[in-house]
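Sat 14:20. Reprocessing the chain from the morning session after the first attempt stalled halfway. Input below, unchanged.
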Amino acid sequence: MTGLRKGLLVVVSGPSGVGKGTLLERLLALRKDCVFSISATTRAPRPGEIDGQHYYFLSPETFNEWVEQDRFLEWNQVHTACYGTPREFVERTRAQGRHVVLDVDVKGGLEVMAAEPDCVSIFLAPPDLEALHWRLRHRGTENAEQIAGRLLVARSELKYMDRYAYTIVNDEIERAESQLEAVLEAEMARTVRVIADGQVQALFHPEPALPNSPGP
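Finished this time. Tokens:
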């Protein structure tokens, strides 16, 4: 009989427009053992957003206290608001046997890798920059100048792809989803995790040999 297996910490990064949101939505809908990380932020709640469900909404003073207390795996300031990944949520959820999924930029991904070396790092890449340009243009949320800026950032982010343990090329969403699931299954089957989870302890502590049977 073994105890509850510790969940994975899955870090997913990739350039804007590569399809991280769509891929992770499909994964979370399919696998109930995966939980999206709840971030903390200093921005005000938007209509319909619930504290502790969509974000942890913190005052700037509280956020800074959390930074000083090392309560974030990673954090960053975006325009006038700060965002961070709370350690407590990640550790508590993993202890419950569920996989915590983070969608973070490359800077945040590298910070999490440094803080949690056992995390599973995955870079979601486009098949090429032309395909990424097409996706950005057709989603209709940015103008030409903004698209050019995002492509410039994408070129910079792609330079860090080799810092991630896995790369999934999102040229077809069903295939990318299958590869992501395969990564999770392979990581849970790694020998170091199986041993740490106590699943094979009997192999390392065998039962004492039975005494020799009496002769005829």
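The longest helix spans residues 173-188.
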